Amino acid sequence: MGIDISKINAKVEVEKPSNTFSFDVLNKEFSWSKKIGAKQRQALYKDFYTLLNAGVDFSSALDILANQQKKKTIKALILEIKAQIINGRSFHEALQETGHFSAYEYFSIKIGEETKKLPLVLIELHKYFNRQLKLRKQIISAITYPVFVLTLTVGVLYFMLTYVVPMFKSVFNQFDAELPKLTEYIIALSEKFPTIFLAFIGMVLLFAAIFKVYGKNKTFRSYKSKVLLRIPYFGKLAKLIFLARFCQFLDLLLTSKTPLTDSLDMVKKIIGFYPIESSIEPIRKDIVKGSSFSQAMSKHPIYGYKLISMVEVAENINELDTMFSRLANEYDEEVEHRTKMIGVVLEPIIIIFIGLIVGVIMVAMYAPMFDLSKIINGG
């Protein structure tokens, strides 16, 4: 027995989000906020689904959720949502009003209210955030060791060029010996290293400022996406992550019986990846003109042959929602595999890189020392 959504004062008119909606903010909201993180979100949606599906009325379900919270901030947030609903707002409007939920969440909740399938939407949101948490843990696990080793390498390089090489330089100057070209190059690099290091920090800050200022510019976003997709291995991983998200969104929307064109409109607003975002309006127009979804998608390389062919099959048997659910799971599995491989691929590369750097510096410093020892012994 589910909750009677008609008891909630839900407004059914479709509100168009502003065209100035910030996708960068949206992506941040997907991950975590100051009040409620992704881990708490997935637990809340699961518990809320369980209560509503068991027949608990909406108000009591919110009270139960609030009372079981250990964090006072989350409890206050739930009670704030309840107060908004009591004052006449619908559930999705209450979520939006708090400012702590993403567009994907309150648009999905809105669909659930309008189609009277709120419990289904809640469990899908739980699955979505559960997948995000799992992916985040996998990425952190995969890159922790490589990042640690790379950081250690930078520290060792800084120490050697700042302290060790100057010590050798003073010894070489005492004997006024002719040095190999490699040694001269390393010493010159050591002298310029503080300037190079500061220039590197400046470049990082400059790029951060450019991303901040031009982050919403379409030309910049298009160029940034093209560069990302061309990065070996990581470009493919990024593409898979966003295709998985694309399929997850359409799975939820189509399962909720939202029309395909309306679903695409919503995906465009929340996907946060320019190649997919920019392709959706042309796809939607082609569908309105009579093209099939798969035919419209085939004009855009970002989707790939596999996705397009599977969508074509799903259209023929009228099971688009089921197919997108299956595709989302397949993409998730591939993302999981590729994420695990990051550490496997990076570790040997980083170790070889460290060995080469340290080896070159040591050879450059010690080779002249052997020559000096011969001169001293001979003298």
Automatic annotation (TrEMBL):
<dbReference type="InterPro" id="IPR001992">
    <property type="entry name" value="T2SS_GspF/T4SS_PilC_CS"/>
</dbReference>
<feature type="transmembrane region" description="Helical">
    <location>
        <begin position="193"/>
        <end position="214"/>
    </location>
</feature>
<dbReference type="Pfam" id="PF00482">
    <property type="entry name" value="T2SSF"/>
</dbReference>
<keyword id="KW-0472">Membrane</keyword>
<feature type="transmembrane region" description="Helical">
    <location>
        <begin position="139"/>
        <end position="161"/>
    </location>
</feature>
<feature type="domain" description="Type II secretion system protein GspF">
    <location>
        <begin position="246"/>
        <end position="368"/>
    </location>
</feature>
<dbReference type="GO" id="GO:0009306">
    <property type="term" value="P:protein secretion"/>
</dbReference>
<dbReference type="InterPro" id="IPR042094">
    <property type="entry name" value="T2SS_GspF_sf"/>
</dbReference>
<keyword id="KW-1003">Cell membrane</keyword>
<keyword id="KW-0813">Transport</keyword>
<feature type="transmembrane region" description="Helical">
    <location>
        <begin position="344"/>
        <end position="367"/>
    </location>
</feature>
<dbReference type="InterPro" id="IPR003004">
    <property type="entry name" value="GspF/PilC"/>
</dbReference>
<keyword id="KW-0812">Transmembrane</keyword>
<dbReference type="InterPro" id="IPR018076">
    <property type="entry name" value="T2SS_GspF_dom"/>
</dbReference>
<protein>
    <recommendedName>
        <fullName>General secretion pathway protein F</fullName>
    </recommendedName>
</protein>
<comment type="similarity">
    <text>Belongs to the GSP F family.</text>
</comment>
<keyword id="KW-1133">Transmembrane helix</keyword>
<dbReference type="GO" id="GO:0005886">
    <property type="term" value="C:plasma membrane"/>
</dbReference>
<comment type="function">
    <text>Component of the type II secretion system inner membrane complex required for the energy-dependent secretion of extracellular factors such as proteases and toxins from the periplasm.</text>
</comment>
<feature type="domain" description="Type II secretion system protein GspF">
    <location>
        <begin position="47"/>
        <end position="166"/>
    </location>
</feature>
